[in-house]
Amino acid sequence: MTMTHESWLLSSTFFLGLTGLSFHRTHLLSALLCLEGMMLSIFIGLGLWALKMSLMTPLMYPIIMLTMSACEAGLGLSLMIATARSHGSDNLNTLNLLQC
């Protein structure tokens, strides 16, 4: 694949996740999956960029981003479990943000 095909594929994957996030924001699990898809496309893009530039220092950037993505996924799943236990489902429409 050429660089234009790779960049087009990565940007379309990112915007597909962004579109999914905007359409499926009623359930927390769907939103988390769309966010993970977006993070995966950025992770692959950073890895390919470091390989194309033949630099050794930027090879740590995808590893750092993967670590942050794993922390984000763990935090999101713990919030989803807490929401499901307290409200009975992961449907975000059942949450009342004005109530303590």
Describe this structure in words.
- With 100 residues, this protein is mainly α.
- The chain has a single domain (1-89), classed as Helix Hairpins (Orthogonal Bundle).
- The chain is 75% helix and 0% strand.
- The chain has three helices and no strands.
- Helix 1 (3-23) runs antiparallel to helix 2 and helix 2 runs antiparallel to helix 3.
- It is elongated, with a radius of gyration of 17 Å.
Ordered list of secondary-structure elements with their pairings:
Elements: H1 3-23, H2 28-53, H3 60-87
Helix pairs in contact: 1-2, 2-3
Number of helices: 3
| Helix content bin | over 70%
Average pLDDT reading: 82
Please summarize the sheet with the most strands: none
Number of strands: 0
CATH architecture annotation: Orthogonal Bundle
C-alpha Rg (nearest Å): 17 Å
Give unreliable regions as ranges.
Answer: none
* Spatial gap, N to C terminus: 53 Å
